[in-house]
Amino acid sequence: MKKRVVLLTILASALVGGASAFFTTNFCSPTNSGYSFTVGDNGVDSNLKFVNNPLTENILPDFTQAAEKGVKSVVNIEIVKKVAIVQPQFGGDDMFEYFFGNPNRNRGQGQQQTPQYQEQRGGGSGVIISEDGYIVSNNHVVEDATEVMVTTSDGEKYTAKVIGTDPATDIALIKIDAKNLPTLQFGNSDSLRLGEWVLAVGNPYGLTSTVTQGIVSAKGRTMGMQKNSKLEIESFIQTDAAVNRGNSGGALITLDGSLVGINTMVYSPTGSYTGYSFAIPSSIVRKVVADIMEFGVAQRAFLGIQMGEITADWLERFGKEAGIKERGGIYIGEVVENGAAAAAGIKKGDVLISINEQKTNSVSDVYETISRYRPNDKVKISIKRDGEMKHFEVTLRNKTGNTDVVRKQELDLAKFLGARFDNVTDAQKKQLSIKGGVQVISLLPDGLLARSRVKVGYIITAINDIAINNIAQFESINIQDIELLEGIYPDGRRMSYGTIAK
Predict the structure, then answer these.
(1) Which Pfam family, any one of them, does this sequence belong to (predicted)?
(2) Are the C-beta atoms of residues 171 and 165 closer than 8 Å to each other?
(3) Which domain holds residue 192?
(4) How far apart are CA 221 and CA 34, in angstroms?
(5) Is residue 267 domain-resident?
(6) Is the whole model's pTM more than 0.85, yes or no?
(7) Does residue 439 contact residue 424 with C-beta atoms inside 8 Å?
(8) Which of 78, 85, 101, 262 is deepest in the core (most CB within 10 A)?
């Protein structure tokens, strides 16, 4: 019995000793532990040190320097604009008519509607890009504003002037009168990699100087907003950095503090952040800002094609008819007459492979690449036709089909007339028996159309006896030559407005 106890004791000691040796070797060695111990003469640890662990080193980057730089260069923007509220007027004290209407009165006739105006406040963020006060933001932040106020990170307040906007890309450039401001320098959004750390800096919900972090989740993301907004160019940087209301116009920056995007939207059923946010790449922002500074307006170049991505679904539906058997590239479904592509010899049925040696695998790739150029710029286009590669030099054109750039003095009609417009729908054409037109969807209270008593909803079908069927024709009219507007209201009333008050 005593021998068994002695043997068990020896065995236990050996196990404990072995475990201790194993623990010391495997868990306290500098290659596996974050700590190094130095034992003094008295047996007490006299020099506890933290050393880098190769297994955990650089897992979390240092955000502090980029955050500090971003916060100093991002401003809070507050705007005031006047919003029209149309209130019906009723004669006498006919309360029955007030609540239920008059069944004997023709729709839209008789009673007039008097517009009332109230102030509406909003805001967002902006990024200082020059020491003398140029600030980039979103068009939707400052759109229709009668006042724009900027507060910098140190609490200084300024009245800002809108230098120019570009609804197609949702970019705005504003200016404050200041000097020696902290700035963010444009970075290269093309060099961003999926999974790369980025910071979003802005003023969500009025909480100034807010920084959130995330990674680049996708590039060249198209959200399908063109049909429901004025956005014509979509090629967003998608991140999981938290962005909410008020972040619009703020900065998306890399860890070295370079500006690689302007935060513009979230994708959410509630309107608040639920996982993904989207920024306009600096490659687009930089070009639009340069255009506004030089010309007062953004310059838009066009290839003059209608296109679609060659996906597996596309191949299944159209591949046999088009004679295309493999995925990849962009199918050119139509070539606009007198457009840039047509002039260069590109044809319907060609497959667009690359622009200036940059592969085009999505429609957003084409939009983003072409958005970097101006009318009259030349680009090299590679296409595949009947299985063979062909190369073309294409001189880009503007929307009206020529190579001219637009300058500040050539203000677009919408701004000149003080209104926003949209093409009429097919349903409206059928209902009103018209071939087309341009509808007034909003009016500025002090704009020319408002002063001429044109009302919201009016559809312009002709200017100076020249038929207007769509926005493109509308914008081709010489501003100074407008003498007569002809059109129709949605209720069927045909109205003409003589020499527009100027």
Answers:
(1) PDZ_2
(2) yes
(3) 62-91+112-297
(4) 41
(5) yes
(6) no
(7) yes
(8) 262
Q: Which DSSP string corresponds to 21-84?
A: HHHHHHHSSTTT-SEE--B-TTSSB---EE---TTTTTSS---HHHHHHHHHHEEEEEEEEEEE
Placement of tokens 């604009």 in the chain: 81
Residue 261 · residue 252 · CB < 8 Å: yes
Write the pLDDT tens digit of every residue in 107-163: 444 454 556 778 889 999 999 999 999 999 999 999 989 999 999 999 999 999 999
- 3-class SS shares of the chain: helix, strand, coil, % to 5: 25, 30, 45
Residues 6+ positions from 225 with CB-CB distance below 8 Å: 231, 234
Q: Are residues 286 and 340 in the same domain?
A: no
Residues 436/474, Cβ–Cβ less than 8 Å: no
**Pairing label, strands 134-137, 171-175:** antiparallel
- 244 in a domain, yes or no? yes
Catalytic residues: 140, 170, 248
The answer to whether residues 133 and 44 belong to one domain is no
150 and 289 both lie in a single domain: yes
Residue 184 resides in a domain? yes
CA–CA separation, 421 and 471 (whole Å): 8
Instruction: Give the CATH number, domain containing residue 425.
Output: 2.30.42.10
Q: Is residue 188 part of a domain?
A: yes
Q: Is residue 223 within 8 Å of residue 173, measured between CB atoms?
A: no
Please say whether the beta carbons of 192 and 216 come within 8 A: yes
What CATH number has the domain bearing residue 122?
2.40.10.120
Same domain, 357 and 433: no
Domain count, the chain: 4
Are 69 and 29 found together in one domain?
Answer: no
Tokens of 89: 């007027």
Q: Summarize pLDDT for 276-327 with one digit per residue, the tens.
A: 899 999 999 999 999 999 988 889 899 999 999 999 999 999 999 999 988 9
383 and 346 Cβ atoms separated by less than 8 Å: yes
